Amino acid sequence: MRFTSKKGLLLLMGLIGIFLTACGNLQNADLSGNTSSNTASSKSAAYQITGTTDGSQYSALLSDGKYKVSSSRGLTVDQNSNNFNVASFEDGLTTISKQQFSPDKYAFQEGQYIARTTANSWLKRKSSSNADGLNPEDNKQTDSNKRAPIYLQQILEQDYLVHSGSTYKLDGMAIGLGMNSTDYYQKVQYGATFKTTISRADQEKQGKEMAQKILARLRQKKELANVTIVFGLYEQAANDSLVGGTYFAQAVSKSGTTLSDWTSLKQENGVLPVVNNEKAINGGDSDSFNNFKSKIQSFFPNLSGVTAQVHYENDSLKGMKIKITTQFFGENEIRSFTQYVGTAASRYLPANVPIEITISSVGGMQAFLNRDSGEKDFYSHVFSSY
Amino acid sequence: MRFTSKKGLLLLMGLIGIFLTACGNLQNADLSGNTSSNTASSKSAAYQITGTTDGSQYSALLSDGKYKVSSSRGLTVDQNSNNFNVASFEDGLTTISKQQFSPDKYAFQEGQYIARTTANSWLKRKSSSNADGLNPEDNKQTDSNKRAPIYLQQILEQDYLVHSGSTYKLDGMAIGLGMNSTDYYQKVQYGATFKTTISRADQEKQGKEMAQKILARLRQKKELANVTIVFGLYEQAANDSLVGGTYFAQAVSKSGTTLSDWTSLKQENGVLPVVNNEKAINGGDSDSFNNFKSKIQSFFPNLSGVTAQVHYENDSLKGMKIKITTQFFGENEIRSFTQYVGTAASRYLPANVPIEITISSVGGMQAFLNRDSGEKDFYSHVFSSY
C-alpha cells in the first residue's frame, strides 16, 4: 500500500497541470492545449517500433525520434483518488483492444487525435461557455440525490497502426470512458466532501450516450472517418478501494456514426484475504490463497503482510497479484524465502492462472516471482547489487 | 540511489541491537547473546528444504519449522556505512562457497555455530576484559597514522549441510572477514569523523592472522573438528562508494588448525558512466554502456538517470546491474519503454554476461529485465495492478 500512497503523492505534487480529468475534481482544468495535429499517417520520416512482439503485447511506434505520450491521457488528480483506477483503466482498454487489433499485426501509439483542450472541454460540464461538455449542466443543487453528478471522470484514447509501405498508418482506435460509481463533491470550496452514488444502470446509460456523441465527433475528422473505433465503459472503483475498477461494456464501430451492439463484460476485482466477514468472490480461490499464506508465514515468521488482488472475468479467476511485505535483510534469507515461495505457490495457488508475486521491504522490492498464462513454473528473481 | 539510502535509514532505525559489527562503529555492541547451541546434526525432527535447485543456487534448510537466521550475521550499522558492502559481503561468500560446496549436493543454512556473544567479543578490540578480541588493543593514540585501527569490520558464518538418512548433517562452513580499507573514527564522542587508511597489504596480513586464529577456535568445537571450512577475505568499500567491496583472498581447511595455501582473487567493482575524467575498468564495456544509454535516452526523453554497477573477475566482466530512473506514469509508456530497453540491451550491451536492469520511478519499481549467464534473451516483466 505504501507504493500506492507515494504514487498518489507524486501525482499530486508533480502532475497537476499535465493530465486531464473531469472539472468537478480538478480545480485548474483549463490547461493550455497543444493541439497535436497528428501526422502519423502522412509522414515518411524514420519510424521505428520498440521491439518485436510474441503476439501477447503490442510493439509501440516511435516516430519523429521519440515515444509520443498521449495529449489526452486522463488521470484523476484529486487528493482522494484511487490510483488503482488509473492503472487498470489503461491496462483494461489495451486488453479490450487486443481482441479487435491483434498485436501481431498492429503497433500501439498513445492517443494523438483528441487534443488536450478538446478532451478537457468534453470532460467538463456542459454550460453556455462549454457546449461540448459531456457531463450534465450544473443544476445548482447540492443535495446528494438532487444534484447532477459528474458521470464521466476520465477519458483515454489509444491508437492502433498497421505497417504500410515505409510508414505506419492509423487503422484502429480505442476510447475508454471512466464512469464514476461515486462522485465526490464539495458544497463549498475547500469544504467537507460529500458523495453522490451512481448506479450501474445510470453509468451505462450515460456512458453509452457519451460514447455515441464522441463517435459522431471523431468521425468528422477526415483521418478517422473509416478507422475501426472500439469503445469501453469502465466503472471507477471508490476512492477507498484496494483494487481498481473494471470494464463493464464495449462496442465496436467499423464506420458511420451509430454505435449499437453493445456487449456486456462481466469483470470483478477483489482483495484477499477477505476481512470483516465479507464473502470472497470465489471461496475455493480464497482457500487456496489462505493455505499459501499460512504455509509461508509458518516457516518465515518475519513477514509483515501477505495480500492479493484477484481479477475475475465471467466468474473465472483471470489473475492474481500478490504482495508480500517482509522484514528481511540478509541476501540469503531473501533468496531462500523466494525459493520457498515458488515451491509453495506452485503447490497451493490456483493452476493455469497468471500470478505475479512481489516481495518487498520498506526499502523497496527485494524479489519477485511470476507465472504467465499457460506456464507451469514460476520465474523468480532476487534483486541484488555489487 | 534512493533505494539504498532508504535501506540505510531503515537499518539505522530498526536494526541497531540486532546485528553485530566491530565495536569501533557500534556504540552498543554488548548485545545479549542467544547462545544457539546448534543441533542441526543431532535431531531427526522434520527437516525441509526451501525448494529444488537447478545447481546454480542453494536450497536452504528449514529446521524446527522455521528458517533460522544467523546469530552472528554481521552488518555495519553506523550512520555512514555503505549498504552495498552488506549485500556483496554476503553474496560474495556464497559465491566462493559454491566452488567448494556444490549446490547440487549441499543445502544452505545461515551460520548457527558462532554465537552472537562470541562473534561480538571477536569483533571488539583485544583488552584485559576481552582476551578474544581480534582487533588490536587500543594504543590510546588518536593520530590517523599512529593509532591502531579497527581492521576487522564484520564477520559472517555460513553453514553447508549434506543429506544424511532422514536428516541433514553439517559438512562445510564458510567464514567471511570484512576488512576495512578505511577505518572511520572519532577522537571524542560525538566529535568529527576522521579516517585511517589501511593498505591492501595490511588488510591481507591482518586478515590471514585473524582467519588462522578463528580456525583454531572453531576446531575446538567437536562438531567442527572435521568439517571443511572456507575462509574469504573481503575488502570493505569506502562509505561514499557507489558499489560494495570485493573478496581478495580465500583459503580452505579440510582439517587441522593450520591455514595455508591462500589463493588471491582478482575482483573489481565499478560504476558507469564514469565521471570526473576517471578511467573505466574496461573501455569497451564503458562504450557499450554509453551507446545503450544514449540510445534509450534519445527515444524516451523522460529518463532521470541511467547508471550501472559492473563487476569484474580476473579482468573480465562478470555482470552488470543497471538502474534506470523514469518519470513515466502511463502503463503503456512503461510497457513500451521496457520493450525498447530489451531491444537496445540485446543490441548494445556486452553479450554472454548476466545483466539485471531495473526501471523505477520515485513510486517504486515499475519494470525489470534480466538475462542470466548463458542466456541469449532478456526476460522482462512490467509490474501492474488490478
Please name the defining characteristics of this protein.
sex pheromone staph- cam373 precursor fold; 6 helices; disordered N terminus; GMP Synthetase, Chain A, domain 3; alpha+beta; six-stranded mixed β-sheet; 386 residues; globular; homodimer; 2 domains; 17 strands; nine-stranded mixed β-sheet
What's the arrangement of secondary structure elements?
The structure is a homodimer of 386-residue chains.
Chain A: H1 2-15, E1 47-49, E2 59-63, E3 66-67, H2 83-100, E4 106-110, H3 116-123, E5 152-164, E6 167-180, E7 182-186, E8 193-197, H4 200-219, E9 228-236, E10 246-253, E11 263-264, E12 267-272, H5 283-299, E13 303-313, E14 316-326, H6 331-348, E15 355-361, E16 364-371, E17 379-382
Parallel strand pairs in A: 2-4, 6-9, 14-15
Antiparallel strand pairs in A: 1-2, 2-3, 4-5, 5-6, 7-8, 9-10, 10-11, 12-13, 13-14, 15-16, 16-17
Helix pairs in contact in A: 5-6
